[in-house]
Write a structure and sequence with these properties.
binds flavin-adenine dinucleotide, six-stranded antiparallel sheet, three-stranded antiparallel sheet, single chain, about 15% strand
Length: about 400
């Protein structure tokens, strides 16, 4: 490819692997010995990184092992996972199931072992884009919330979040694929849109302290360090956002992180010295007590995104889940049902726990299957003609 190739290698490793060094030289690479530290892989990586940082405009850094900063270990492990696919196929053919008794790998190099049992990761763009503006009041007061903090309107949602020192934010959320509504990034159009929603127009009654901040490309991400119930590693604990996170519009990330931290405390108390037991129990507690919050949020967001997509395409959105219609109806009519719904929204109880309570089920069964009247505001066509 006509590019200069410099390979950093620990001096000790160069001596140990002389034939490899000669082969790299024959193929045109310059092999630089790393002379610092233990003169092995870690030191060679440091030297290569140092060179890259000092020459960022004409140097590309590549590495074939799971060391160094993100995303390189992740990339290498992903490429190496073909090994695990192949092992799985061969195990099924040779012994009828994909479970080996042992995996023996040259962990010194790292990369093939990482690929052999790669943790599960789900990662997808949530599809929303936020148009946020921040305000301050002279009196230190926040604008009143006359309806909901987070309210869905046709193909747009709106939320206000109070902050300290008389400041707050107002966020308009749309589908990131909705090109027609991208004009909301312009402050005058943003204000013109907000002014048309009577219950929230006053959220902009303050001194703006930012332009319209646009945020997209937000991922729902979930990691599981166990495959088929078997931990891929012991001694590694992913907690809070390092384990899973969703787009932040429901404002539940901190609560979920704290619930996860409580679970960690419980598992540490009982299994700290039992590595395999710890990894198993941690996986089980996470799936049982915390993962349902993640799944619940992702499902709610997918439903809202599908609604926005249908409206953008001029179609009628799918009818809402009849059970959820009755739950919302019960919450409007009965304080106990309202409190129970808040327990789910604020992560005080899992949805399945609340749904198993006989008193709550009775209130829901008795509630009429009636949708609330839509909050006042323009529909999509009216909004687009206003913004055009
Ligand atoms: C725009 C936005 C708005 C949000 N709004 C809300 C809200 O209203 N309510 C709510 O509950 N949640 C909200 N969240 C989610 C919430 O912020 C997160 O769920 C929460 O902060 C996760 O906590 P954590 O401790 O798991 O991770 P983090 O808060 O990300 O903490 C991880 C820390 O580790 C540090 N770190 C990373 N790598 C290393 C390393 N190698 N060595 C040392 N340190 C390292 C990082 O610098 C960071 O300080 C929002 C998130 C975003 C992005």
């Amino acid at each position: 490819m006509g590019m200069e190739c410099v390979v950093y290698m620990g001096k000790v490793d160069m001596e140990r692997q002389r034939p490899n060094v000669e082969r790299m030289r024959i193929l045109g690479a310059r092999v630089e010995p790393a002379l610092s530290g233990s003169m092995t892989l870690k030191d060679a990586t440091n030297e290569a990184m140092r060179h890259w940082i000092n020459n960022p405009t004409d140097t590309h850094y590549i590495i074939g092992s799971v060391v160094g900063p993100h995303p390189y270990p992740d990339m290498v492990a992903r490429f190496q996972s073909v090994i695990s696919e192949e092992m799985r196929k061969q195990l099924i053919t040779l012994q009828g199931n994909p479970y080996p008794d042992y995996v023996i790998a040259c962990v010194g190099g790292g990369s093939n072992a990482a690929g052999a049992r790669r943790p599960v990761e789900e990662r997808a763009d949530c599809g929303f884009v936020y148009y946020a503006r921040h305000f301050r009041s002279r009196s230190g007061e926040q604008p009143a919330v006359l309806h909901n903090f987070l309210q869905s309107y046709d193909s747009l949602s709106a939320i206000t979040l109070p902050a300290d020192n008389g400041t707050w934010s107002v966020v308009l959320t749309t589908s990131s694929r909705d090109k027609a509504l991208r004009v909301l990034r312009e402050p005058d159009r943003w204000h013109a849109a907000l002014a048309r929603y009577p219950l929230i127009a006053h959220w902009a009654d303050g001194e703006p302290i930012s332009g319209v901040d646009v945020m997209a490309g937000i991922e729902d991400r979930y990691r599981r360090l166990a495959i088929d119930g078997q931990p891929v590693a012991s001694g590694v604990v992913a907690v809070g956002d390092a384990w899973a996170c969703t787009n932040p519009s429901a404002g539940r990330g901190l609560s979920v992180g704290l619930i996860h931290a409580q679970q960690l405390r419980n598992v540490v108390r009982e299994h700290l010295r039992d590595h395999a037991g710890f990894a198993h129990t941690w996986h089980e507690h996470t799936e049982r007590h915390v993962a349902p919050f993640y799944r619940h949020q992702v499902a709610a967001d997918l439903t809202r995104f599908a609604e926005m997509t249908a409206l953008r395409n001029g179609q009628r959105p799918a009818p809402p889940d009849p059970l959820m219609v009755k739950v919302a109806s019960a919450a409007r009519q009965h304080a106990d049902a309202f409190r129970a719904v808040l327990e789910i929204a604020f992560c005080l109880a899992l949805p399945q726990e609340v749904f198993q309570r006989p008193a709550f089920r009775e209130l829901v069964e008795r509630a009429p299957a009636e949708l609330p009247p839509p909050a006042p505001g323009p529909d999509r066509d009216q909004l687009l003609s206003l913004l055009s």
